[in-house]
């Protein structure tokens, strides 16, 4: 009888220790991410994943957050909005994450907004489209500069150069469509007339028919290409192949050295709005974010043996905003973290200084963009 009691006690203790071990093993802060590691937006998803891995490793090595390690759970949505929805469902229901980061692009980010709001989970998007946070949704925040800000930066530079009759060539969905809409809506305010308006598919292998139409448009003075991923690289090569001699602007969707490698010297002379992370060494020493940007750039390039870009910066901003909110909340309670995110003020990010509010879930000012020019295969800050 005594042996049975002792055996039962030992078994109970073993079960108790096993349970405690499980709790400790699972006592991590679970951050879920859905990224476009493959597909047409892989130029964005790949550096985002590399940056997240680097940052999570650094944070965990320093003791984690609230004394708990971060468990990063990542799925590849293949640049497919339907897969993005499926993986966000898995992150919430199966993985039971505390917070979601992702949407490498606008289409995948927009696809999950209803789901995020219904499930009431904090979400930091890395898509560029302004529609992600306009109108403001309670649980949705965004880190990259918007297509509206990019359009206004380009339109202002065109006006400054006296280029007032332009052609617009945009991707026919998501990021490109939103950018086209923003450009058309604001061109007149800057004294710019859109006299040619063409679109292309991000999967097009050749865009010369649209470019030929633009070249034959009487009076066109410049071309503005609004797209991201691999599409703008095809457009850029076609521009040089047909000898289109117009000044060309790209969007912030190509502010990546991967893009420059794809197009070689074909992009020289083109301008685009971009963040300071594209060339942080060129910032004046008085810039309060210069040291942060150079430090992150150095760590990223040493770890990955690849060049830094704005997309890696999106991961920095999203993860560090999340970590800061969790620390201030003192918990991973979703409502408390959401409230702490919305109270973020003067956060020094790679995109700019971020201050969220109940009416602004982007939190960036117009100074978040610089005007870049591609010179000898590199980005140069000219404004």
Automatic annotation (TrEMBL):
Signal peptide residue numbers: 1-25
> Do you know which Gene3D superfamilies this protein is assigned to?
3.40.50.2300
Residues of the Leucine-binding protein domain: 28-363
What InterPro entries has UniProt attached to this entry? BCAA_transport, Leu-bd, Leu_Ile_Val-bd, Peripla_BP_I
Cross-referenced CDD domains, in alphabetical order? PBP1_ABC_RPA1789-like
Organism of provenance: Magnetospirillum molischianum DSM 120
A Pfam cross-reference name? Peripla_BP_6
Q: Which family does it belong to?
A: Belongs to the leucine-binding protein family.
Superkingdom of origin: Bacteria
Q: Which GO terms describe its biological process?
A: amino acid transport
Q: Which UniProt key words apply to this protein?
A: Amino-acid transport, Signal, Transport
Q: What is this protein's record name?
A: ABC-type branched-chain amino acid transport systems, periplasmic component
């Amino acid at each position: 009888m005594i042996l049975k009691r002792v055996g039962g006690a030992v078994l109970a203790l073993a079960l108790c220790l096993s349970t405690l071990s499980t709790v400790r093993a699972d006592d991590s802060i679970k951050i879920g991410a859905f990224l476009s590691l493959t597909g047409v937006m892989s130029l964005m998803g790949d550096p985002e994943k590399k940056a997240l891995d680097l940052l999570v490793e650094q944070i965990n090595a320093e003791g984690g957050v609230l004394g708990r390690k971060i468990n990063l759970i990542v799925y590849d949505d293949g640049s497919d909005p339907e897969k993005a929805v499926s993986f966000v469902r898995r992150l919430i229901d199966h993985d039971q994450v505390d917070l979601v980061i992702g949407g490498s692009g606008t289409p995948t980010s927009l696809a999950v907004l209803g789901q995020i709001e219904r499930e009431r989970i904090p979400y930091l998007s890395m898509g560029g489209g302004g529609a992600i946070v306009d109108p403001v949704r309670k649980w949705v925040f965004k880190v990259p500069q918007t297509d509206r800000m990019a359009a206004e930066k380009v339109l202002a530079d065109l006006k400054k150069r006296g280029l007032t009759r332009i052609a617009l060539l945009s991707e026919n969905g998501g990021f490109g469509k939103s950018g086209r809409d923003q450009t058309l809506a604001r061109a007149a305010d800057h004294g710019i007339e859109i006299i040619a308006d063409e679109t292309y598919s991000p999967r097009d292998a050749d865009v010369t028919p649209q470019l030929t139409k633009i070249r034959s448009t009487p009076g066109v003075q410049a071309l503005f290409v609004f797209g991201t991923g691999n599409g703008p690289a095809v457009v850029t090569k076609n521009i040089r192949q047909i000898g289109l001699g117009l000044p060309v602007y790209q969007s912030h969707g190509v502010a990546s050295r991967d893009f420059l490698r794809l197009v070689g010297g074909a992009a020289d002379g083109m301008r685009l709005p971009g963040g300071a992370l594209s060339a942080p060494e060129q910032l004046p020493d008085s810039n309060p974010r210069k040291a942060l940007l150079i430090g992150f750039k150095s760590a990223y390039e040493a770890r990955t043996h690849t060049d830094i870009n704005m997309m890696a910066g999106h991961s920095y901003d999203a993860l560090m905003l999340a970590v800061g909110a969790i620390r201030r909340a003192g918990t991973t309670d979703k409502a408390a973290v959401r409230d702490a995110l919305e109270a973020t003020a003067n956060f020094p990010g790679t995109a700019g200084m971020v201050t969220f509010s109940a009416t602004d879930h982007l939190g960036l000012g117009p100074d978040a963009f610089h005007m870049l020019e591609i010179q000898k295969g590199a980005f140069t800050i000219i404004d």
